[in-house]
Amino acid sequence: MILEARDLAKDYGPVRALRGVSLALERGETLGIVGESGCGKSTLARLLVRLEEPTRGRIEFDGVDLTALHGRRLRERRRRIQMVFQDPYASLDPRQTVGGAIAEVLRVHDLARGAGRVAELLGMVGLAAGHADRYPHELSGGQRQRVSVARSLAAEPVVLILDEPVSALDVSVRAEVMNLLVRLRDELGLSYVFISHDLSMVRHLSDRIAVMYLGRVVELGPWDAVLDVPLHPYTGALRDAMPVPDPELEAGRVDAPIRGEVPNPAAPPSGCPFHPRCPLAEEICREIRPELLELLPAHAAACHVAAREVSAVRSA
Ligand code: ADP
Ligand code: MG
C-alpha cells in the first residue's frame, strides 16, 4: 500500500463536498475515479496532495500518517505525491519559460540542477531540449500538458494524482497524451490516481475503478468487473451514457444522458443519495443510506437492491 485515505471528508461551508471516502492505492497500481461533475473528485485530489486540509480523516503515505508530519519531513513526503491538473495553461506561469518552470521545481526540492536534467525531463515527455526556451503561449495544448507532466516528474514522485489530465485537450491529441502517461507509469514504476468524469477514459489504464456520487464512493472494484457487471445502478447508467464511437458520423459520439439532475450537495436526498434518479429505487432506498459493502470478491457497492440480489444468487 503506497497511499491510503481513511474516511476523508471536506466541507465548504454548507457544501459537504466529500463525505467520508476511504481508498487504498497499491504500489504500481492505477486507480480510476469517475463520477459526474460536482461529485467531489477534484476535492479528493487536492486533499491527497495536501493542497487543502481535510475536515476529517487521515492520509497515509507509505505507512506514515501525513497529517502528523511537519516541516522538512512533510515536504520530503509531499514531494513524492504530485498532481497533474486539467488545465495546463492555468498551472504554468505565462512569464516563465518551460525550462525555467522545470528548473524551479528542481531548485525548490534541492534536486539535481543544470540544463542536462531539464533536457532529460523534456525528452521523457516527448519534447525537444529546444522547448526549454519557449513560453507556454508558444506551445500547443498537448505540448503544454506535456510540460506540466515534466514539471511533476521533476520532483521525482512515486504517486501521480491526475485530475482530468486530457479533458481540456483536443480530441485529436488525447490518445497521444494518454499513451505517454501509460508509458511513463510503466517505465518509472509510478502509481496513478486517474480522475475523469468519463468512464471510457479510465477503463483502459485502470486496474481498479472507484465510482463517486455526491461526495461518496458508491462502487469500487476491478475495472472489468465494474464495467461488465456493474453492481450499482449509477455505474450502469454511467456505462450506458458512455460515448459510442459511430463510424457513420465523423463527429459521431452519441452521448446518452443519465436521467435527472445531480442533487444539490448542500441538501442531499434522504436515504440513498441516488434514489431520486434510480430506476430500481424502493421504499428502503428513500429511508436508509446503504453502506459500501464488498458484495463480490474485491468488488464493493453501496446499494440495497444489489446487496439483496447478490445474496439471493448466493443462497440459491
Ligand atoms: P468534481 O471535481 O467531481 O467536479 P469538485 O470536487 O470540484 O467536484 O466539487 C465538489 C463540490 O464541492 C461541488 O458542489 C463544488 O461546487 C464544491 N466546491 C468545490 N470546491 C469548492 C470551494 N473551494 N468552495 C466552495 N465549494 C466548493
Ligand atoms: Mg473536477
Keywords:
single chain, binds adenosine-5'-diphosphate, 2 domains, 4-stranded antiparallel sheet, 8-stranded mixed sheet, 316 residues, 12 helices, Rossmann fold, alpha/beta, 23% strand, 14 strands, binds magnesium ion
Number of helices: 12
* Small-molecule binders: adenosine-5'-diphosphate, magnesium ion
Number of strands: 14
Distance between the termini: 36 Å
> Largest beta sheet, briefly?
8 strands, mixed
Q: Over all CA atoms, what is the radius of gyration?
A: 21 Å
The CATH topology of the largest domain is: Rossmann fold
Mean pLDDT: 92
In percent terms, what proportion of residues is strand? 15-25%
> Would you state the CATH class of the largest domain?
Alpha Beta
Count of folded domains: 2
- The secondary-structure element order is EEEHEEHEHHHHEHEHEEHHEEHEEH
Shape: globular
Q: Helical proportion?
A: 25-40%
Strand order of the largest sheet: 6-7-8-3-9-10-14-13
The CATH superfamily label of the largest domain reads P-loop containing nucleotide triphosphate hydrolases
Low-confidence stretches: none
SSE arrangement:
Blueprint: E1 3-12, E2 15-25, E3 30-34, H1 41-48, E4 56-61, E5 64-65, H2 71-79, E6 81-84, H3 88-91, H4 98-108, H5 115-124, H6 141-154, E7 159-163, H7 171-188, E8 191-196, H8 199-202, E9 208-213, E10 216-222, H9 223-228, H10 233-240, E11 244-245, E12 253-254, H11 283-287, E13 293-296, E14 299-301, H12 304-315
Helix pairs in contact: 4-6, 5-6
This protein binds adenosine-5'-diphosphate and magnesium ion.
